[in-house]
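Box 4.2: Ligand-aware structure prediction
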Amino acid sequence: MAFEIKATGRAVPQRRVSNEELAKKIDTNDEWIYSHTGIKARRIADAETASSDLGVKAAWNALEMAIERGVCTEKTPEELAATIDMIVVATTTPDFYGCPSTACLIQNKLGAKNAGAMDISAACSGFIYGLETAAGFLSVGTERKRCLVIGCEILSRFIDWNDRRTCVLFGDGAGAVLLEKTSAPTEGIGRRGLLRTILRADGAGSENLIIKKGGSRNAYRAGDVFEFAPFIEMNGRAVYNFAVRAMTEIIKDLLEAERLSIDELRWITPHQANARIVQAATKRLNFPSEKFFINIDEYANTSAASIPIALDELNRGERLKSGDLVMCVGFGAGLTYGGNLIVW
Ligand code: ACO
């Protein structure tokens, strides 16, 4: 029994905001942003778009790919949507806090009438957690076959656009994968699908990346004077150190657990938080930088969406072929971190 990614999709807002455009509004410049982060631009959603809207688009994109590539017997994306057993949505920026889940909104818009739906709250590691959760769900219950795993974010709405230390880092976007239980082997020649996942957390670092306002700790009340704005606050240096350590640890542990060498991996697809984090981890591991897929220059940090967006770019760009080994590595608020090792 294997859990295979059969199709991928993505959706990003049309509006591209370059570093130069940001520099007209706040005290920053392209040189600083690019040299410190690798970011050149980000996509920003219009005021009417919420996370579920991007998530739905990315999901249709994946379902359309499944039909076009003939990986299922259904003839239309709508027919395929009706066969989904579970929709797992990773998001830090849900349409609504608490309830309803963004997954339920997406389930309704897709017409996925036979699917359960739930959100995962693991910030930038959300897709890593979501993929393992979906595979675990499919592994029990013989009648279950397909899950959609979606990462979708509108981070631009939780950013203080006057805080140059954070606002230059983030963007909006969504990515989705169609995960299917198949009879392919998971060992030996011809093995396919999700081989192994590591999920870890370090809640002691929770204050290093936090949205303080809006939850049960600091709930909104009528007549509130805002003590904390509902914006992302970050201890950049602490997050940087954690991220390099987390990425290095997960890559090493996954390779060791499967007795693999770096040469056997086609791609490492890290969470796109900062190109410097990836470069520092690459140096520590002494791995060739060409193994690491980077697209942060165009999209900035899209949190839970960054890994599925990257997978879709690789997949559509024909840079992944059947049998390739891919490692996804995530790290983020919580603090959470983890990785999935996948045979494409
Ligand atoms: N433009 C121009 N100057 C800036 C900007 C900016 N956008 N932001 C900060 N500066 C200035 C600071 O004011 C400071 O100036 P000063 O020395 O005169 O006081 C100087 O640049 C250095 O600031 P630092 O904060 O020390 O810069 P640092 O080298 O630590 O880089 C950064 C900051 C890029 C945020 C880094 O800490 C980092 O990458 N941290 C990881 C955070 C991250 O990736 N977060 C993403 C979310 S978390 C996740 O996805 C895991």
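In the box above, the bound molecule is acetyl coenzyme *A. The longest helix spans residues 236-257.
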